[in-house]
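Sample entry (230 residues):
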Amino acid sequence: MIQPPALTGCVLACVLALGCSSGSPVTASPDASGSDATQSDTPATDAGHDAAAAQPTDAVPTDAVSTDAVSTDAAAPGDAGPSGCTVTGSFLGAPLIVADCVSTVVATPSGTTTDVVIVDFASVCGYVHRDALHGGSKVLDVHFSGAAVTPGTYDTPTGPVSVQFANYDATCGSPSGESASSGTVTITRNDGTGIVGSFDVMLNADHATGTFNAPPCTPGTADGGSSPCE
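Predicted structure, serialized as tokens:
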């Protein structure tokens, strides 16, 4: 899936294919109107990140993973979604109506990648398991790379965390998107029950804030091929 971005080839293929490989950021390019729009060479949510032999770290044990479907009722902007995540503000000038969110922790030869993926569709963990993308979806990926994430406040994009947004069309083609140009991400808890925290970021001209209480989800093993669009 969603392998962020991860669900961005790691949903956002790192963002959406959840997991994203080492969290390559969505790069911004001016659109016709002069505003920045981002295009990613690979989908921005590999929420599971493009990790071929991803193994969850101790921070998120596999026995804590839940694949139960969540409610299909979406939350209004700023309200808590069924998963306990909230988003207020806009991305590319439009809101993200939260329906679900998960967290993934993957050990790679170069370190640990951690993602909190917030989406506007239900049952995102199933997409993470299948390394699949969801057509016509919006994905926000809070991506940490390097060491295991501990409680604290982190600057973005100068610190170890990036915040990326991707808007996929019906065929899951290269998404439009944008990355945080400034702001902070605060982690208050990271354990076997999930990752809890908040963010306050600027993405070009957009300002977004939110909170997350994201349950753990284990991404499927990528086979090196393209992520299916479902």
